[in-house]
Write a structure and sequence with these properties.
Helices cover 78% and strands 0% of the residues. The protein has helices at 2-29, 37-51, 55-82, 84-91, 101-116, 121-148, 155-158, 165-181, 189-219, 233-252, 262-293, 305-325, 329-375. α1 runs antiparallel to α13, α2 (37-51) packs antiparallel against α3 (55-82) and α5 (101-116) runs antiparallel to α6 (121-148).
Length: 376
């Protein structure tokens, strides 16, 4: 009897381990390149909390984000090592390739947290340089691979709002660069011109991509399954472009060439904010149509972090633009969207943990049952 119980205990243990290993392998094999949107969302909500006086929340989210950033890099390397074919295939996929730009944006958002939340400019500078290298790799990797790829889908199948993460990545270079330049040796005309170029190219890239996205909206059949969460990047890309413009004005207002075109930069930044604002009701109405009229089921998807990030970014960019334009009501808009962003972050974070926690609870329950059987 004792031998049988021991065998049952070991067999249950191996079954648990096998199930956990199988789950881990299946998740890593299909691990989405856009998962660094988790870092983007957590980081911008943390920065918003810091700017609006919620210091404790900002520090807590900063700690969570550092851990998430490191874990995600480990998972990226594990996937590249054990599932190389799937990893390479993503670089040639119109649906998934632009997810790699979240590496750039996530790295720069963590850098902004280091600069804004904890004042560590040395680490923030290192992350900016790393983010710049990643930007070159992703920009001249993803676009080239998609151009030279032999098999290409129709625009109806291939394009989605996630393509605009390329805009977010580009503008994140400008945002963190401006934050680092404030009061440093980088407060010069050459650096100002470089960041201004990133900002303007990011705006131009948005025009190119949003034209294709709106064309797909209006002239092809649109199903609830087509309205994936990254469509909120339609707004988020404009929000971070607004933030980048506001930071350029704040830091380089007296430095050439920005001081020579300050009214133009202010006007264009305000236009970007207005465009981001226009998208919000449109995306809400489409969300109601998707989930309440067409009854599309809510379930966790890593792409939902692409919904949380724009909410936090809109809060921060509204706050910054309100200071530049001296419009007090923008402060209240920022507070309202920060609350929404925090709630969206919490719901998405708990949804992300639901499946792993279920497996842990199931494993503990099975182990307890095995131990009780052995004692009997």
């Amino acid at each position: 009897m004792e031998i049988d119980c021991t065998w049952n205990t070991k067999r249950t243990k191996f079954a648990i381990q096998g199930r956990a290993a199988a789950y881990f392998q299946s998740r890593v094999a299909v691990f989405h390149p856009a998962y660094f949107a988790l870092v983007m969302a957590t980081g911008i909500v943390s920065i918003g909390c810091h700017l609006l006086g919620l210091k404790e929340f900002a520090v807590l989210l900063f700690a969570i984000n550092i851990l998430a950033y490191l874990i995600l890099w480990i998972l990226y390397f594990v996937r590249a090592f054990f599932f190389w074919d799937e990893f390479v295939k993503d670089w040639f996929s119109h649906k998934r390739a632009f997810g790699f730009f979240t590496l750039v944006a996530g790295t720069n958002v963590v850098g902004s947290q280091c600069a804004v939340v904890c004042g560590n400019l040395a680490l923030a500078s290192s992350l900016w340089v790393f983010g710049l290298i990643l930007w070159f790799i992703c920009t001249y990797g993803v676009f080239v691979f998609l151009i030279i790829g032999k098999e290409k889908p129709s625009i109806e199948v291939g394009i989605n709002g996630g393509w605009l993460v390329a805009v977010v990545a580009t503008q994140s270079i400008c945002v963190l660069g401006s934050q680092l330049a404030s009061g440093s040796i980088f407060l010069c005309d050459v650096f100002a011109l470089s960041l201004l170029s990133f900002w303007m190219f990011g705006g131009m890239l948005y025009i190119w991509l949003i034209s294709l996205i709106v064309y797909r909206y209006l002239f092809f059949k649109f199903e609830p399954s087509d309205l994936i969460p990254p469509y909120w990047i339609n707004m988020g890309a404009m929000a971070i472009t607004t933030l980048a413009g506001a930071e350029l004005i704040r830091v380089f207002a007296e430095v050439n060439p920005i001081c020579e075109m300050l009214p133009f930069v202010k006007g264009l930044t305000t236009m970007y904010w207005a465009t981001a604002t226009w998208w919000i009701p449109m995306l809400l109405v489409l969300g109601v149509w998707r989930h309440f009229i067409r009854r599309f089921k809510f379930q966790y998807d890593p792409l939902y972090w692409g919904l949380v990030f724009p909410l936090g970014m809109y809060s921060v960019c509204s706050l910054k633009l309100g200071v530049i334009l001296k419009v007090g009501v923008m402060h209240w808009i920022a507070q309202g969207f920060l609350i929404v962003g925090l709630l969206a972050w919490l719901i998405t974070f708990l949804s992300m943990l639901q499946r792993p926690l279920y497996l842990v609870v199931l494993a503990l329950r099975q182990r307890s049952t095995a131990v009780l059987s052995a004692e009997d």
